[in-house]
Protein backbone atom coordinates (compact mmCIF):
# COMPACT_ATOMS: atom_id res chain seq x y z
CA UNK A 1 0.00 0.00 0.00
CA UNK A 2 1.77 3.19 -1.11
CA UNK A 3 1.67 5.59 1.83
CA UNK A 4 3.96 7.78 3.87
CA UNK A 5 3.80 9.22 7.39
CA UNK A 6 5.86 12.40 7.65
CA UNK A 7 6.92 13.14 11.22
CA UNK A 8 7.50 16.88 11.17
CA UNK A 9 6.03 20.01 12.68
CA UNK A 10 7.09 21.95 9.57
CA UNK A 11 7.52 20.87 5.96
CA UNK A 12 9.11 23.95 4.47
CA UNK A 13 11.09 22.33 1.67
CA UNK A 14 8.03 21.16 -0.28
CA UNK A 15 7.34 17.69 -1.55
CA UNK A 16 5.56 16.21 -4.53
CA UNK A 17 4.13 12.98 -3.25
CA UNK A 18 3.39 9.81 -5.20
CA UNK A 19 5.78 7.16 -6.42
CA UNK A 20 3.96 6.31 -9.63
CA UNK A 21 3.12 9.74 -11.03
CA UNK A 22 3.41 12.69 -8.70
CA UNK A 23 -0.07 13.98 -7.80
CA UNK A 24 0.10 15.96 -4.55
CA UNK A 25 2.35 18.82 -3.45
CA UNK A 26 2.48 19.84 0.21
CA UNK A 27 4.50 22.17 2.38
CA UNK A 28 4.08 24.32 5.48
CA UNK A 29 5.59 27.78 5.86
CA UNK A 30 6.00 29.52 9.21
CA UNK A 31 6.81 33.19 8.63
CA UNK A 32 7.64 36.03 11.02
CA UNK A 33 6.34 39.56 10.34
CA UNK A 34 7.78 40.83 7.07
CA UNK A 35 9.29 37.48 6.17
CA UNK A 36 8.36 36.02 2.80
CA UNK A 37 8.70 33.06 0.52
CA UNK A 38 8.52 32.78 -3.27
CA UNK A 39 7.96 29.53 -5.11
CA UNK A 40 6.60 27.88 -8.23
CA UNK A 41 5.83 24.18 -8.52
CA UNK A 42 6.19 22.73 -12.01
CA UNK A 43 3.17 20.82 -13.25
CA UNK A 44 0.93 21.74 -10.30
CA UNK A 45 -1.97 24.01 -9.49
CA UNK A 46 -1.74 25.23 -5.89
CA UNK A 47 -3.92 26.40 -3.03
CA UNK A 48 -2.50 28.71 -0.38
CA UNK A 49 -4.31 27.94 2.89
CA UNK A 50 -3.60 30.38 5.73
CA UNK A 51 -3.62 28.26 8.87
CA UNK A 52 -3.00 31.19 11.21
CA UNK A 53 -2.17 34.87 10.97
CA UNK A 54 -2.39 37.16 7.96
CA UNK A 55 -0.38 37.34 4.74
CA UNK A 56 -0.13 39.28 1.53
CA UNK A 57 -0.20 36.85 -1.36
CA UNK A 58 0.88 37.60 -4.90
CA UNK A 59 0.29 35.31 -7.88
CA UNK A 60 2.32 36.50 -10.85
CA UNK A 61 1.33 40.21 -11.06
CA UNK A 62 -1.96 39.85 -9.11
CA UNK A 63 -1.91 40.84 -5.44
CA UNK A 64 -4.27 39.57 -2.73
CA UNK A 65 -3.83 41.69 0.40
CA UNK A 66 -4.58 40.66 3.97
CA UNK A 67 -5.32 36.98 3.41
CA UNK A 68 -6.18 35.13 6.61
CA UNK A 69 -8.29 36.31 9.54
CA UNK A 70 -7.88 33.68 12.23
CA UNK A 71 -5.33 33.32 15.02
CA UNK A 72 -5.37 29.53 14.72
CA UNK A 73 -7.13 26.70 12.87
CA UNK A 74 -9.78 26.50 15.62
CA UNK A 75 -11.09 30.02 15.01
CA UNK A 76 -13.25 29.70 11.92
CA UNK A 77 -12.71 28.61 8.32
CA UNK A 78 -9.48 29.22 6.50
CA UNK A 79 -8.95 31.67 3.67
CA UNK A 80 -7.52 30.45 0.37
CA UNK A 81 -5.81 31.80 -2.73
CA UNK A 82 -5.80 29.60 -5.82
CA UNK A 83 -2.58 29.58 -7.86
CA UNK A 84 -2.86 28.28 -11.44
CA UNK A 85 -0.46 26.01 -13.27
CA UNK A 86 2.80 27.83 -13.92
CA UNK A 87 2.01 30.58 -11.44
CA UNK A 88 4.76 32.23 -9.40
CA UNK A 89 3.60 32.54 -5.79
CA UNK A 90 4.90 35.04 -3.23
CA UNK A 91 3.71 35.03 0.40
CA UNK A 92 4.68 37.70 2.98
CA UNK A 93 3.54 37.68 6.62
CA UNK A 94 1.87 40.90 7.75
CA UNK A 95 0.92 39.60 11.21
CA UNK A 96 3.49 38.91 13.92
CA UNK A 97 3.58 35.25 12.86
CA UNK A 98 1.77 33.50 10.02
CA UNK A 99 1.54 29.82 9.21
CA UNK A 100 0.65 28.84 5.66
CA UNK A 101 0.05 25.50 3.97
CA UNK A 102 0.82 25.38 0.25
CA UNK A 103 -0.94 22.37 -1.25
CA UNK A 104 -1.41 21.33 -4.82
CA UNK A 105 -2.11 18.73 -7.43
CA UNK A 106 -1.01 17.79 -10.90
CA UNK A 107 -2.86 19.45 -13.76
CA UNK A 108 -2.30 20.34 -17.41
CA UNK A 109 -4.70 23.28 -17.69
CA UNK A 110 -4.15 26.91 -16.73
CA UNK A 111 -6.93 28.89 -15.04
CA UNK A 112 -7.13 32.37 -13.45
CA UNK A 113 -6.06 32.95 -9.86
CA UNK A 114 -8.79 33.73 -7.32
CA UNK A 115 -9.44 34.14 -3.60
CA UNK A 116 -11.91 32.26 -1.39
CA UNK A 117 -12.98 34.23 1.70
CA UNK A 118 -14.10 32.42 4.89
CA UNK A 119 -17.74 33.44 4.36
CA UNK A 120 -17.70 31.80 0.91
CA UNK A 121 -16.85 28.25 2.03
CA UNK A 122 -19.37 25.44 2.46
CA UNK A 123 -19.61 23.11 5.47
CA UNK A 124 -21.19 19.71 6.05
CA UNK A 125 -22.00 18.21 9.45
CA UNK A 126 -21.41 14.45 9.64
CA UNK A 127 -21.95 11.87 12.36
CA UNK A 128 -23.12 12.10 15.94
CA UNK A 129 -21.77 11.86 19.47
CA UNK A 130 -23.86 8.73 19.98
CA UNK A 131 -22.08 6.94 17.12
CA UNK A 132 -18.67 8.43 18.07
CA UNK A 133 -18.33 9.86 14.57
CA UNK A 134 -19.04 13.58 14.97
CA UNK A 135 -17.10 15.84 12.58
CA UNK A 136 -17.54 18.99 10.54
CA UNK A 137 -16.09 19.22 7.03
CA UNK A 138 -15.42 22.68 5.61
CA UNK A 139 -14.88 22.68 1.84
CA UNK A 140 -12.33 25.37 0.96
CA UNK A 141 -11.95 24.26 -2.65
CA UNK A 142 -14.92 22.03 -3.35
CA UNK A 143 -17.30 21.11 -6.11
CA UNK A 144 -18.65 24.67 -6.23
CA UNK A 145 -15.30 25.55 -7.81
CA UNK A 146 -15.69 23.06 -10.65
CA UNK A 147 -14.50 24.73 -13.85
CA UNK A 148 -12.21 27.07 -11.90
CA UNK A 149 -9.91 24.35 -10.51
CA UNK A 150 -8.58 21.09 -11.93
CA UNK A 151 -8.75 17.86 -9.90
CA UNK A 152 -7.73 19.46 -6.59
CA UNK A 153 -10.09 19.30 -3.58
CA UNK A 154 -9.12 20.97 -0.28
CA UNK A 155 -11.08 20.86 2.97
CA UNK A 156 -10.72 21.24 6.72
CA UNK A 157 -12.15 18.58 9.01
CA UNK A 158 -12.90 19.09 12.70
CA UNK A 159 -13.48 15.92 14.75
CA UNK A 160 -14.73 15.90 18.32
CA UNK A 161 -12.75 14.08 21.01
CA UNK A 162 -13.10 10.31 20.93
CA UNK A 163 -14.68 10.36 17.47
CA UNK A 164 -13.82 8.65 14.20
CA UNK A 165 -13.57 10.24 10.77
CA UNK A 166 -13.03 8.60 7.41
CA UNK A 167 -15.76 6.37 8.76
CA UNK A 168 -17.42 4.06 7.82
CA UNK A 169 -14.19 2.81 6.24
CA UNK A 170 -13.93 3.63 2.55
CA UNK A 171 -11.38 3.79 -0.21
CA UNK A 172 -10.90 5.62 -3.51
CA UNK A 173 -8.02 3.89 -5.27
CA UNK A 174 -9.72 2.44 -8.35
CA UNK A 175 -11.20 4.24 -11.35
CA UNK A 176 -14.53 2.43 -11.85
CA UNK A 177 -17.36 4.99 -11.87
CA UNK A 178 -20.11 5.12 -10.74
CA UNK A 179 -18.88 2.87 -7.90
CA UNK A 180 -15.50 4.49 -7.21
CA UNK A 181 -12.97 7.00 -8.52
CA UNK A 182 -9.20 7.13 -8.02
CA UNK A 183 -7.86 9.87 -5.76
CA UNK A 184 -4.62 10.32 -3.84
CA UNK A 185 -5.10 11.94 -0.42
CA UNK A 186 -3.11 13.74 2.25
CA UNK A 187 -3.95 14.53 5.89
CA UNK A 188 -2.18 17.17 7.99
CA UNK A 189 -3.09 16.86 11.69
CA UNK A 190 -3.50 19.32 14.53
CA UNK A 191 -4.93 18.69 18.01
CA UNK A 192 -6.44 20.83 20.75
CA UNK A 193 -4.84 20.82 23.25
CA UNK A 194 -1.59 20.30 21.36
CA UNK A 195 -0.70 17.42 23.68
CA UNK A 196 -3.52 15.48 22.03
CA UNK A 197 -3.05 12.48 19.81
CA UNK A 198 -4.96 10.12 17.59
CA UNK A 199 -4.48 7.10 15.37
CA UNK A 200 -4.40 6.62 11.63
CA UNK A 201 -5.21 3.20 10.22
CA UNK A 202 -4.51 2.02 6.68
CA UNK A 203 -5.44 -1.43 5.38
CA UNK A 204 -6.56 -3.32 2.28
CA UNK A 205 -8.53 -6.44 1.44
CA UNK A 206 -5.42 -8.62 1.36
CA UNK A 207 -5.06 -8.21 5.12
CA UNK A 208 -2.10 -5.85 4.93
CA UNK A 209 -2.52 -3.17 7.59
CA UNK A 210 -0.60 -0.53 9.53
CA UNK A 211 -1.46 1.83 12.38
CA UNK A 212 0.22 5.10 13.35
CA UNK A 213 -0.06 7.33 16.39
CA UNK A 214 -0.74 10.87 15.08
CA UNK A 215 0.28 14.11 16.78
CA UNK A 216 0.09 17.80 15.93
CA UNK A 217 2.17 18.58 12.86
CA UNK A 218 2.20 15.06 11.43
CA UNK A 219 1.27 14.54 7.79
CA UNK A 220 0.04 11.31 6.18
CA UNK A 221 -0.07 10.65 2.44
CA UNK A 222 -1.63 7.62 0.75
CA UNK A 223 -2.87 6.40 -2.62
CA UNK A 224 -4.53 3.08 -1.70
CA UNK A 225 -6.55 1.37 0.99
CA UNK A 226 -9.18 1.99 3.64
CA UNK A 227 -8.09 4.82 5.95
CA UNK A 228 -10.21 5.50 9.07
CA UNK A 229 -8.91 8.03 11.61
CA UNK A 230 -9.68 8.41 15.32
CA UNK A 231 -8.82 10.96 18.00
CA UNK A 232 -8.45 10.22 21.67
CA UNK A 233 -11.14 11.34 24.17
CA UNK A 234 -10.57 14.85 25.50
CA UNK A 235 -8.73 16.01 22.37
CA UNK A 236 -10.25 17.72 19.33
CA UNK A 237 -8.69 16.91 15.97
CA UNK A 238 -8.16 19.13 12.94
CA UNK A 239 -7.32 17.67 9.55
CA UNK A 240 -6.28 19.66 6.52
CA UNK A 241 -7.28 17.25 3.76
CA UNK A 242 -6.00 17.38 0.19
CA UNK A 243 -7.46 15.15 -2.51
CA UNK A 244 -6.30 14.97 -6.12
CA UNK A 245 -8.07 12.86 -8.72
CA UNK A 246 -5.99 10.94 -11.19
CA UNK A 247 -8.69 11.03 -13.87
CA UNK A 248 -11.27 13.63 -12.81
CA UNK A 249 -12.65 15.91 -10.12
CA UNK A 250 -15.65 13.93 -8.84
CA UNK A 251 -14.72 11.91 -5.76
CA UNK A 252 -16.76 8.70 -5.36
CA UNK A 253 -15.94 6.79 -2.19
CA UNK A 254 -16.31 3.02 -2.08
CA UNK A 255 -17.44 2.05 1.43
CA UNK A 256 -16.21 -1.28 2.75
CA UNK A 257 -18.96 -3.83 2.17
CA UNK A 258 -18.83 -5.26 5.69
CA UNK A 259 -19.53 -1.83 7.17
CA UNK A 260 -21.97 -0.32 4.67
CA UNK A 261 -24.88 -0.84 7.07
CA UNK A 262 -23.36 1.96 9.18
CA UNK A 263 -24.13 4.44 6.42
CA UNK A 264 -27.77 4.28 7.51
CA UNK A 265 -26.84 4.75 11.18
CA UNK A 266 -24.35 7.62 10.99
CA UNK A 267 -26.08 10.91 10.09
CA UNK A 268 -24.90 13.07 7.22
CA UNK A 269 -23.09 10.43 5.13
CA UNK A 270 -25.17 11.13 2.01
CA UNK A 271 -24.64 14.90 2.35
CA UNK A 272 -20.91 14.33 2.73
CA UNK A 273 -20.77 12.17 -0.41
CA UNK A 274 -22.72 14.73 -2.45
CA UNK A 275 -20.39 17.54 -1.37
CA UNK A 276 -17.39 15.73 -2.86
CA UNK A 277 -18.99 14.76 -6.20
Short description, anyone?
The protein is mainly beta and 277 residues long.
- What order do the strands of the largest sheet run in, or round the barrel if closed? 1-20-17-22-14-13-12
Q: Helix- and strand-based class?
A: mainly beta
> How far from one another are the termini?
25 Å
Order of helices and strands: EEEEEEEEEEEEEEEEEEEEEEEH
Instruction: Report the CATH C-level class.
Output: Mainly Beta
Spans of at least 5 consecutive residues whose pLDDT stays below 50 are none
Remind me, CATH topology? Answer: Jelly Rolls
| Overall tally of structural domains | 1
Shape, please? Answer: globular
Query: CATH homologous superfamily?
Result: Jelly Rolls
Number of helices: 1
What is the CATH architecture descriptor?
Sandwich
Kindly state the percentage of residues in helix: under 10%
Number of separate strands: 23
Average of pLDDT: 93
Approximately what portion of the residues adopt beta-strand conformation?
over 45%
Note the topology.
Elements: E1 3-6, E2 15-17, E3 24-32, E4 36-39, E5 44-52, E6 55-59, E7 62-67, E8 79-83, E9 89-93, E10 97-106, E11 114-116, E12 122-126, E13 135-141, E14 152-159, E15 164-165, E16 170-171, E17 183-192, E18 197-203, E19 209-215, E20 219-222, E21 229-231, E22 236-245, E23 254-255, H1 269-276
Antiparallel strand pairs: 1-20, 2-3, 3-10, 4-9, 5-8, 5-10, 6-7, 6-9, 8-11, 12-13, 13-14, 14-22, 15-21, 16-23, 17-20, 17-22, 18-19, 18-21
Give a structural overview:
- The chain is mostly beta strands.
- It has a single domain (3-276), classed as Jelly Rolls (Sandwich).
- It contains one helix and 23 strands.
- The protein has one helix at 269-276, and strands at residues 3-6, 15-17, 24-32, 36-39, 44-52, 55-59, 62-67, 79-83, 89-93, 97-106, 114-116, 122-126, 135-141, 152-159, 164-165, 170-171, 183-192, 197-203, 209-215, 219-222, 229-231, 236-245, 254-255.
- The longest helix has 8 residues, at 269-276.
- The radius of gyration is 18 Å and the shape is globular.
